[in-house]
Amino acid sequence: MYWLALVIAGGFEVVGVITMNRLVRQKSVLNVLMMILAFAGSFSCLTYAMNGIAMGTAYAVWTGIGTVGGAIVGMLMYNEAKSGWRILFIAMIITSAVGLKLIS
Question: What pTM was estimated for this model as a whole?
């Protein structure tokens, strides 16, 4: 259950980054509220996950999910670079997160 909460926290983190980008492009109260709710959900789920997962592991996986999610969203929605090197390093982050799960 703690790992599921950690994955959900990472998902909220990605949503928070997307809404942050929307806020930069279009300032509105709705975008501010969505961003606050997304980051609050992220931190809440992360806090819960840390009850059963070591802090270092939970934080590393959470930031990895946010980093990979943000990079993939940037490539798919905002036409950011899709080079082979970038995809390789994204795969390395995913592999590292899975490795942390396997050894914990």
Answer: 0.88
Report how far residue 32's alpha carbon sits from residue 29's, in angstroms, rounded to the nearest whole number: 5
Q: For the chain, how far is it from start to end, CA to CA, in angstroms?
A: 14
Q: Compute CA distances 85 → 45, 65, 90, 102, whole Å.
A: 32, 18, 9, 26
d(CA 42, CA 9): 4
Radius of gyration of the CA atoms of the chain, in A: 15
The first and second tokens of residue 14, run together, are 């990605």
Does residue 82 sit in helix, strand or coil? coil
Kind plus residue range of the DSSP H or E element containing 3 = helix 2-25
Give the tens place of pLDDT for each residue, 1-23.
999 999 999 999 999 999 999 99
What single string gives the DSSP state of each residue in 20-78? HHHHHHS--HHHHHHHHHHHHHHHHHHHHHTTTS-HHHHHHHHHHHHHHHHHHHHHHHS
